[in-house]
Amino acid sequence: MKALSLRQLSKTYRNGVQALKGIDLDVEQGDFFALLGPNGAGKTTAIGIIASLVNKTAGQVQVFGHDIDTDLETAKACLGLVPQEINFNQFEKVSTILVNQAGFYGIPRAVAKERMEMWLRKLQLWEKRDAISRSLSGGMKRRLMIARALIHEPKLLILDEPTAGVDIEVRRSMWEFLRELNESGTTIILTTHYLEEAENLCRHIAIIDEGRIIEHDRMATVLRKLHSEVFVLNLRQPLAGAPELPGYALKLADDGSIEVEVTKAQNLNDIFAALSARGIEVVSMRNKANRLEELFLRLVEGRDAATGEAKPAVPA
Amino acid sequence: MSAGSQATAASVPRGERRWVGFRTIVIREFSRIIRIWGQTLVPPAITATLYFIIFGSLIGRRIGDMGGVTYMQYIAPGLIMMSVITNSYGNVVSSFFGAKFGRHLEELLVAPLPNWLIVLGYITGGVVRGLLVGLLVTAIALFFTQLHVEHIAAVLAAVLLTSVIFSLLGFVNAVFAKNFDQISFVPTFILTPMTYLGGVFYSITMLPDWAQHVSKANPILYMVNAFRYGFLGLSDVNLAASFALMTVAAAALFGLCVWLMEKGTGTRE
User: Buried b vs exposed e over A286-316: b needs ≥16 C-beta within 10 Å?
Assistant: First the structure.
């Protein structure tokens, strides 16, 4: 069954900006799905339409088979949203925000209080239950929004950049939490600035750019389209210039490391052997960029090269 | 962090979901009124006390009787109604605009509740505050004068309809408002003058003919007089017309508010 189905979804804002140009997208039940794109690509607009925060111009949206034009209440009941911006009442207590949100979904107060405790404990916010939400740290506010989106236990959870601005420890713990949530049956759609996050968590991916879907496939299939990777090799001894190896493009990153681009037809063993023969010792190695980030930039840069437009400063 | 089990809100029957949702909006609104009682309940009580002291006791003594009752008794229903109007309007306009401004209105917009229910929830909040303040001002009035209720049904119908109408008007204001200036504009420049000129402090029979005709175009005159009739049996206007006007206005404004929500004016992009 499809958790989400978009057909020819379009949005033109009153100022004439065409944010979505007829996108088609399917997300299967149980999937962990990444929706990526540069700033202004249309991701938040698409999520806004699915969650009824933005009116669509044309097209069809179905959540677990419930069309938002004909069965909006049921479609909404299946959906939980963690938006990009903080949008809870900053003057209310943490516990009140969750109990009220449960009430808006028809969950009786007694049950809502039990669930509130359960989710606050799971998200390590129980100690803050009586705190005014404004006083929470950035990471806690993000976790509160996740707890709020889960209080009615939705079948489909959409997270719009949930880890933006949180430290690495909290981010890793959120990943673990989301992975477990997905394993327990919740379909998850994620947009993120951290492509490492998408690569680690998601099984399927769609890349949206200028209001159109430019990639929509399994994560592994999409990553296979990356024909080359750039590695940074850290050297034992500093070099004055990049060594020349026939068939390889090497450049000096700094005096203690070099960058080398390796295509699918080439292999690292040959590089190590050639460097070793020249008396250059490699002590460690890393990818210059995350693989998905590399692919993402190439896809978007490809579009920029074709249209002559400036490339976005930050991917996501 | 660890995730949990599944049981969805989609399985809750629609009627039950709507009832619990409505109750939650009303509880949230009531909690807000009580939480900020220093802004919601105290100022109208102080204002009403000052009116009773200055207009009722000090100036009223020199005015004498009006329509067979003391001036204090005459203005008491008007002052109660004035506080109901101001507070019903103020509650909805500030609460709904605050939710828009702070973006927590989105909590309701994403929830599986129909728009008419969201409007009804906010209006009920406005009516609750209007009636609470009305009761408070009535209690203060009883310190200064005696009030007899001649027609209880007229009192209840007039206060309820007036509170609903001004809650709905507050909702319309909040939907269109883009900043805090725009939510104080209507109360300051339209609502207050209309209330003062709506027969709270005087009978329009004291005015010259032309001014009586102008006053009859002011809808607040009908509300205040219908309410005063309930207490004193006195009215400057036709009561059937008053109640008909209020009922039609309440129904039309409710329809307008729901339509604005369906369209997404000021709430959805």
Answer: eeebbbbbbbbbebbeebbeeeeeeebeebb
pLDDT value of residue B56: 78
- pLDDT-derived band at A302 (thresholds 50, 70, 90) equals low
Three-state SS annotation for chain B: CCCCCCCCHHHCCHHHHHHHHHHHHHHHHHHHHHHCHHHHCHHHHHHHHHHHHHHHHHHHHHHCEECCEEHHHHHHHHHHHHHHHHHHHHHHHHHHHHHHHCCCHHHHHCCCCCHHHHHHHHHHHHHHHHHHHHHHHHHHHHHHCCCCCCCHHHHHHHHHHHHHHHHHHHHHHHHHCCCHHHHHHHHHHHHHHHHHCCCCCCCHHHCCHHHHHHHCCCHHHHHHHHHHHHHHCCCCCCHHHHHHHHHHHHHHHHHHHHHHHHHCCCCCC
pTM score: 0.86
Give the pair of three-digit tokens for residue B229. 């009739």
What would the CATH number be for the domain defined by A2-224?
A: 3.40.50.300
Q: Report pLDDT for A305.
A: 52
- The total of other beta-carbon atoms located within 10 Å of residue A265's CB is 8
Q: Which of B21, B102, B264 shows the shortest C-beta gap to A103?
A: B21
Inspect the interface and report whether the beta carbons of A104 and B31 lie closer than 8 Å. Answer: no
* pLDDT per residue as tens digits for the range A41-83: 899 999 999 999 999 999 999 999 999 999 999 999 999 999 9
- Distance set, CA A312 to CA A289, A303, A309, B7 (Å): 16, 11, 9, 41
Most B CBs within 10 Å, among A66, A104, A153, to test the B interface:
A104
A268's enclosing H/E stretch is helix A268-277
Contact B31 A96 (CB under 8 A): yes
pLDDT in tens, A147-193: 999 999 999 999 998 887 778 888 888 889 999 999 999 999 999 87
Residue B52 CA to residue B92 CA, distance in Å, equals 27
Cβ proximity of B126 and B89 under 8 Å: yes
The verdict on a CB contact (< 8 Å) between A100 and B12 is no
Q: The domain A228-291: what is its CATH number?
A: 3.30.70.1560
Contacts of B8 in chain A (CB under 8 A): 77-78, 152-155
Q: Backbone phi, then psi, for A254, in 5-degree steps?
A: -150, -175
CB within 8 Å: B264 and A78: no
> Does A39 touch chain B if contact means CB atoms closer than 8 Å?
no
Total residues found in chain B within this entry: 269
Q: What residue ranges of chain A are covered by domains with CATH 3.30.70.1560?
A: 228-291
Sheet containing A282-287, strands listed edge to edge, beginning at the edge strand earlier in sequence: A249-254, A257-263, A228-235, A282-287
Report the alpha-carbon distance of residue A238 to residue A258 in Å, rounded. 10
Lowest average pLDDT, out of A300-314, B90-104, B150-164, B169-183, goes to A300-314
**Which one-letter DSSP state was computed for residue A86?**
-
Model confidence at A315, pLDDT cuts 50, 70, 90, reads: very low
Q: Where in chain A is the domain with CATH 3.40.50.300?
A: 2-224
